[in-house]
Design a protein that fits this description.
mainly alpha, globular, disordered N terminus, HGSNAT_cat, membrane, transmembrane helix
């Protein structure tokens, strides 16, 4: 989702915001040990939220920001939208399958497509990007606002009417039954101990609104320019969203795993507030120093994120000791003795953030900007 570096309307603050989200995605996805992480770096158990729960919707918001620049430049917008959506979805599917073999006892065996997870982070990004782009293309920004309201209210209605028992529970939410019926249990995530996909089909609907909100914010700052008034209005809009999220939370709990509509308002609102702060500091105050670390991630966000996933999958193939993968061996041999369980786990994650920063830095120095 990178923008060409030659774009005359490029906002450094948007690169910084996008880069921050990518760096945080790598940080929270690669702890040395999932049993030893600081609470803010883990997801909420169910209802509620932590800073980690904001990372993915912030990335979707950043996708919308980039779209506000790029969509206007497409010569054949529909073809570009469908091509990009299909490619990102396919990359996500291949990443789920990669490295195509896995350990079974002491031998490597081919990973069966019969148990391939269909959805995932990249697949949700693809669908949210594609559907948001189509909504904006056909209905324009004003129509996209109406569509967003309908998506958030409609999703609430679907959970209430199609769920079983507690419609906001792991076992009773309607998305679970839809995913089982369409995707099948063998093609779903099992991180909760049962087949349940936090990037499932139904919960993708409200996530589209995160992209639309990012688009509207990006379009607004382009039209109104880099000034204090723009920053204040964007921040106030974000705070209103946060307030509405907490009001709605009384009836429709904030929940990342089923991507509730109140969660969309919270995450989009906080994204707008943080982006407004970056715009003020970078574009208005002209505080240019110190942002390059995040700017590097923001120039090749999708590629760097994919490569971080590829490396973790490769770790799984390497066995320095019988029965032990390189991932846990690396943490236990280097980082845990160096800093202890919690700090060592954090240091392991920070090491990988730094590693992929070096990749992004090298790409930037070579002026290589990989776009899908």
């Amino acid at each position: 989702m990178s923008l060409p570096t030659s774009s005359p309307n490029r906002f450094l603050s948007l690169d910084v915001f996008r880069g921050l989200t990518v760096a945080c995605m790598i940080l929270v996805n690669t702890p040395g040990s999932w049993a030893h992480i600081y609470a803010p770096l883990g997801h909420a158990k169910w209802h509620g939220w932590t800073p980690t729960d904001l990372v993915f919707p912030f990335f979707l918001f950043a996708v919308g920001n980039a779209m506000s620049f790029a969509l206007k430049k497409y010569d054949a917008p529909l073809a570009k939208i469908f091509k990009r959506t299909a490619l990102i979805f396919l990359i996500g599917l291949l990443l789920n399958w990669f490295p195509f073999v896995a350990w079974s006892g002491d031998e490597l065996v081919f990973k069966s497509l019969a148990k391939l997870r269909i959805m995932g982070v990249l697949q949700r990004i693809a669908l949210c990007y594609g559907l948001a782009a189509l909504i904006i293309y056909y209905f324009k920004p004003k129509g996209a606002i109406i569509a967003s309201v309908l998506l958030l209210l409609g999703y609430w209605g679907l959970l209430l009417t199609c769920g079983q028992g507690d419609p906001y529970s792991l076992e009773g939410n309607a998305g679970l039954f839809i995913d089982k019926a369409i995707l099948g249990e063998n093609h779903m995530y099992r991180g909760e101990g049962v087949p349940f996909d936090p990037e499932g089909l139904l919960s993708t609907l409200p996530a589209i609104v995160n992209v639309i909100c990012g688009y509207l914010a990006g379009d607004y700052i382009q039209r109104k320019g880099k000034n204090t008034g723009t920053v204040i209005r964007l921040a106030l809009a974000g705070l209103v969203f946060v307030a509405l999220a907490y009001v709605w939370n009384s009836w429709f709990p904030i929940n990342k795993k089923i991507w509730t509509s109140s969660y969309v308002l919270l995450s989009a609102g906080l994204a707008a507030v943080i982006l407004s702060i970056f715009i003020y500091l970078v574009e208005i105050v002209q505080w240019k120093r110190g942002w390059y670390f995040f700017e590097v991630f923001g120039k090749n966000p999708l590629f760097i994120f994919v490569m971080s996933g590829v490396l973790v999958k490769i770790y799984g193939l390497i066995r320095p000791e019988p029965g032990k993968g390189f991932y846990s061996w690396f943490y236990e041999t280097v980082f845990r003795p160096l800093a202890g369980e919690l700090n060592g786990s954090l240091l392991f994650a920070l090491f990988h953030v730094g590693l992929f920063w070096l990749l992004g830095w090298w790409l930037d120095k070579k002026r290589i900007y990989i776009k899908v």
